[in-house]
Amino acid sequence: MLILPLFFLFLAEPSVTGEWSIHRSASGNESTQTCHLTQTGAKLTGTCESQKGPVQITGKIEGAKATWTFQTDRDGSPLTIIYKGIVESATKMNGSVTAVEFGVEGEFTATKK
Q: Which of 87, 88, 92, 101 gives a 20 to 30 Å CA spacing to 62?
């Protein structure tokens, strides 16, 4: 009887809650950003560091897919950043990043600290 509940425990997706170092590459530009993510069920919240200080993120987890968005500005113009990734393990994600208003897309890799 104990084996069955343990089996389902191993099937659970890893939580992304924690501090992540995110390396981005878009249009020939490389950068690293720190995000503090909190997963509550399918809901994703937290903050990501920006040039203007921390910004609030909102997002969701669907199976191994993680998506989050934040709003900031660049040179006084609004800027929406969207991350869409795959959670490979409890400590690794990768996927795409989009700067919506500039129409720039790139890739990211993330490692939990």
A: 101
